């Protein structure tokens, strides 16, 4: 805090002195001045003025408050620009705490910045920090324990839509992801969609029947293979999920699969590069990859 200008400094000091003197005089007058008028003043028939003087504990209360105020002003900054015997100033406190932050916080950040993925994962401190960043920025969608919910994928399993390498995960967090599963209700038709859903389900549950699904198989090669792959393994470049495993983003019952195929899906992971620092994203990546 900058020093007060002369006028305000005088104003503040003047007010404080005036206030204290006024209080002191008042106390002395109430308790120690002799009552020198003789006539008895009676109010409301029986209230005699002066018959119940102010209790004496008030005197001690006010006097100790006065002494405390004066002592406080002697030791601590409160009397205009005078800093008190302890010489505490706001600037000093501020720069001390800032130095403290610089020392602890930035030193810690620099150390964290210089660590590689594995060392980060082994640092309890770093993982604790990452857990907090996750809770604040990601838990609302991916769930408190990162196990996913609804259309938000599980981030703790080995199944990655957009790739499991640290670079790919970092990319997902920094730039976000836009998945586009086109709608196939038109080309496939109502019946074709139902059959396709049954075919896809049979692959995932390993009950694929060549004869029963012959026409869907053909259509798969025509419409789906480009993205989901020959072995239905998916494609991390497009975020196209593996259809042969039993991990489902949009539900594994025939109705849900039909809906996915007929109307398409558009999962959006928002970009976080403007919201989080590089270090925060690195910490999150290490945290997600630690399992
Ligand atoms: C508004 C909801 C939302 C928030 C907030 C969000 N995500 Fe996502 N995230 C998604 C969705 C939806 C997807 C799946 C996109 C898709 O369908 O491909 C996703 C996908 C991902 C993926 C790719 C998963 C994979 O299998 O490849 C990662 C990694 C990820 N999110 C991490 C995070 C982290 C870390 C945060 C916090 C910084 C976060 N997300 C915050 C909605 C969200
Ligand atoms: C242009 C690429 C592309 C094509 C072609 C495509 N898909 Fe997809 N598919 C995707 C993407 C990307 C997703 C993930 C959508 C999301 O995350 O929101 C997806 C998701 C799905 C899912 C949901 C999986 C789950 O885990 O819930 C099913 C089922 C599916 N596709 C089936 C098909 C079928 C059947 C065809 C062919 C008729 C097809 N897809 C064609 C890209 C494609």
In short, what is this structure?
This protein has 291 residues and is mostly helical.
The helix content is: 55-70%
**For this structure, what is the CATH class of the largest domain?**
Mainly Alpha
Fill in the CATH topology of the largest domain: Cytochrome Bc1 Complex, Chain D, domain 2
Order of helices and strands: HEEHHHHHHEHHHEH
Question: How would you characterize this protein structure?
Answer:
Helix 7 (166-175) crosses helix 11 and helix 8 crosses helix 9. With 291 residues, the chain is mainly alpha-helical. It contains 11 helices and 4 strands. The protein has 3 domains: 1-11 and 54-88, no CATH class; 102-178 and 271-288, Cytochrome Bc1 Complex, Chain D, domain 2 (Orthogonal Bundle), CATH 1.10.760; 185-266, Orthogonal Bundle (Cytochrome Bc1 Complex, Chain D, domain 2), CATH 1.10.760.10. The strands form 2 sheets. A two-stranded antiparallel ribbon has the order 1-2. A two-stranded antiparallel ribbon has the order 3-4. The model has no long low-confidence stretch (mean pLDDT 91). It binds heme C (2 copies). The site of one heme C has 24 residues, from helix 6, helix 7 and strand 4.
């Amino acid at each position: 805090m900058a020093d007060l200008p002369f006028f305000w400094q005088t104003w503040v000091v003047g007010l404080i002195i005036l206030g204290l003197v006024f209080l002191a005089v008042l106390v002395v007058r109430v308790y120690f001045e002799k009552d020198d008028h003789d006539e008895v003043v009676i109010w409301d028939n029986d209230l005699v003025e002066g018959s119940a003087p102010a209790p004496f504990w008030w005197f001690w209360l006010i006097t100790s408050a006065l002494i405390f105020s004066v002592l406080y002003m002697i030791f601590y900054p409160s009397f205009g620009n005078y800093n008190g015997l302890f010489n505490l100033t706001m600037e000093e406190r501020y720069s001390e705490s800032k130095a403290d932050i610089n020392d602890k916080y930035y030193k810690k950040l620099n150390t964290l910045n210089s660590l590689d993925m594995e060392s980060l994962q082994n640092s309890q401190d770093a993982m604790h920090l990452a857990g907090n960043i996750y809770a604040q920025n990601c838990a609302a969608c991916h769930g408190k324990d990162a196990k996913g919910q609804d259309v938000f994928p599980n981030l703790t399993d080995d199944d990655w839509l957009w790739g499991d390498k640290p670079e790919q995960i970092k990319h997902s967090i920094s730039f976000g992801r836009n998945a586009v599963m086109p709608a196939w209700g038109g080309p496939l038709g109502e019946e074709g969609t139902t059959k396709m859903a049954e075919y896809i389900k049979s692959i995932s549950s390993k009950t694929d029947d060549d004869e029963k699904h012959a026409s869907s198989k053909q259509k798969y090669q025509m419409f789906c293979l480009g993205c989901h792959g020959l072995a239905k393994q998916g494609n991390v470049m497009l975020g196209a999920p593996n259809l042969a495993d039993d991990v489902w983003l949009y539900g594994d019952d025939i109705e849900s699969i039909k809906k996915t195929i007929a109307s398409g899906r558009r999962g959006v992971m928002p970009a976080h590069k403007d919201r989080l620092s590089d270090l925060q994203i690195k910490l999150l990546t290490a945290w997600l990859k630690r399992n």
